[in-house]
Amino acid sequence: MVRERLGARWNIRATDLKPADGIEELDVADFERCVAMFRGADAVVHLAADPNPDADWEALKGPNVDGGYAVAAAARECGVRRLVLASSVHAVSAYPDTVQRRAEDAPRPANLYGATKAWAEALGAWVAASSRTSVVALRIGYFSERSPTGKDASPRNLSAWLSHGDCARLIQASVESEHDGFLVVNGISANRYRIVELGEAERRIGYTPGDDAWAPLTRD
Question: Taking 80 as the threshold, does the pLDDT of residue 33 lie above it?
Fold first, then answer.
């Protein structure tokens, strides 16, 4: 999705566990390999993880915990200008449902997956505080091309929806914005009802989503 929308704008070096056409092999838990990949990069966008909110420790430890550290430490080692980390709204899922979460809210996860995303945010704060690399952590919501339907169309999922187009706009803004230090932003579309706030943090990077889970897609 990112390469399709931003590949003409950026020179993207894409990686995954399994190599494919235009994608190089990388285990994000391998620090030395991450360093080799990141040398000379302007920015690193880290999206690799086990995304299952019900995953146990054995499943999460490698990609989410060890991998998060290796990527953050390698980006710091290489002195990249910007590190973008995929956090999740699960990092703040233990707040009451009656409370709209802000990007400024401290992590409060309700599951172990969310705890690994709080760890990713902590790593980002460490990198920004101890190097010249600035960091944006994205609390990503329910990511899908179309708004949730059928059994997935719960109020929570609809309010947390992030379209493909808005995700690309979010990542572009996170990489290209000018700011120093560490910043957490919420990553959802412009949904009519929102589980998280789109406020000052998102304005700071110039993120302007255009899609709404309760309306037809208006942008791509």
Answer: yes
